[in-house]
């Protein structure tokens, strides 16, 4: 069973929720997309010069980050993401980045 939350709902729902970088490797996501830090920054909507790459690298090095920021990062990389919840032997999937 799949439920769609979508970017707008997800961003509102997860506004104050943090994810530990121990569980998600942003550099790995960016590299899987075949993007440089600069290219990902541009896709994310950052404008400017070389400092864009620095901004992306800083985010990749953080110990934790907001789920909404993670969703934006994944979206900029051209990826999708879903939240999988297992309850009473049931597996529920929620699309959080489409």
UniProtKB/TrEMBL annotation:
Superkingdom of origin: Bacteria
Protein name per its UniProtKB record: Uncharacterized protein
Originating species: Acinetobacter baumannii
Organism taxonomic ancestry: Bacteria, Pseudomonadati, Pseudomonadota, Gammaproteobacteria, Moraxellales
């Amino acid at each position: 069973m799949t439920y769609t939350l979508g970017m707008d709902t997800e961003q509102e729902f997860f506004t104050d929720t943090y994810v530990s970088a121990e569980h998600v490797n942003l550099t790995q996501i960016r590299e899987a997309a075949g993007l440089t830090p600069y290219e990902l920054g541009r896709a994310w909507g950052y404008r400017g010069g070389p400092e864009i790459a620095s901004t992306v690298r800083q985010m990749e090095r953080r110990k934790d980050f907001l789920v909404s920021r993670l969703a934006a990062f994944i979206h900029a990389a051209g990826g999708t993401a879903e939240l999988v919840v297992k309850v009473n032997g049931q597996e529920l999937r929620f699309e959080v980045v489409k």
